[in-house]
Each structure stands twice: as C-alpha cells, then as structure tokens.
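Example 5.3 — 8-oxo-dGTP diphosphatase
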Amino acid sequence: MSKVVHVAVGVVFRADGKILIARRPDHLHMGGRWEFPGGKVEVGETVQDALCRELLEEVAIEVQQLQPLLEVRHDYPDKTVLLDTWQVTQFSGEARGQEQQDIQWVSIAELDKFQFPDANQAIIDAVKANFS
Ligand SMILES: Nc1nc2c([nH]c(=O)n2[C@@H]2O[C@H](COP(=O)(O)OP(=O)(O)OP(=O)(O)O)[C@@H](O)[C@H]2O)c(=O)[nH]1
Ligand SMILES: [Mg+2]
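Solution (predicted structure tokens):
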C-alpha cells in the first residue's frame, strides 16, 4: 500500500462570497482540472502552516483567518490523498496565479460548471451545504 499524501487545501472566500479556484498546470497530476489552491504538507510542518505557505506561493495571498471545513480521503488509481480542507475567511493581498495558472473567483452556484478532480466533489457538496 502506498502512503497517503497529506494535502492542505484552502476554500478561500472573498468578502462578496466568491471562492477562489485555480487551474492545475497540464503536466501535473489532475492537470487541466480546476482546484482549490493548496499543496502537500511537508515534514515538520503543521497543516495550517502548509496552507499559509502554499497560498502565498501559488496565489500570492496571506492568510489571516482560517477554520477547518472537512477532511476528504480519496483513492486515485495511482495514489491516495487526504485533502485537509480549510475555509479561509480573511486574507490580505490580491490573488494572482504565481505559477502561470489561470485563477477565477466564482460563486458557489458556478462551481458545478468547472471540472475538478474526483476527490473534490465532497468538498463542493460541503461548501453548498454550509454556505449556500
Ligand atoms: N491543491 C489541491 N490538490 C488537490 C485538490 N484535489 C485533489 O485531488 N488534489 C490532489 O492533491 C495532490 C497534491 O496537491 P498539489 O499538486 O497541489 O501539491 P503541491 O502544491 O505540493 O505540488 P508539488 O508536488 O508540485 O510541489 C495532487 O495529487 C492533487 O491532484 C485540490 O482541490 N487542491
Ligand atoms: Mg498545489
């Protein structure tokens, strides 16, 4: 059994209620699909630290307030991920794709128009249930 990849994932809300999504670069796992920004938790790092680091690296925002939303464990054919998912309610800076990836701010209703990795359906369901 391969080990579970622990991933810090941020559902970032802007003051107008829109959520930040980013398009994964084509060459990566799940390339071309849309995601909530985040990345792997490194050794010796808390998941909160990882989330803050990843959001700064990927979309140039500084997290100021976060709270746990849910954990999703999902088996892909090639790996198992644990998406440790947090709601970000306050941040500073203006989001931009730091790795040439497209980003968009979308309403909860619009989330269904985008193709996400399979593991994300549980996150989208939780967002709709909690925040619609
Ligand atoms: N960030 C992020 N990763 C997701 C989501 N959904 C999902 O299945 N994943 C998976 O989680 C895994 C790790 O995420 P990642 O590729 O962002 O990790 P990372 O930023 O540390 O990238 P790196 O390994 O290139 O440094 C990938 O296999 C990715 O496909 C999501 O909404 N956001
Ligand atoms: Mg990432």
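Remark. The beta strands are 4-12, 19-23, 34-35, 38-40, 62-75, 80-92, 103-106.
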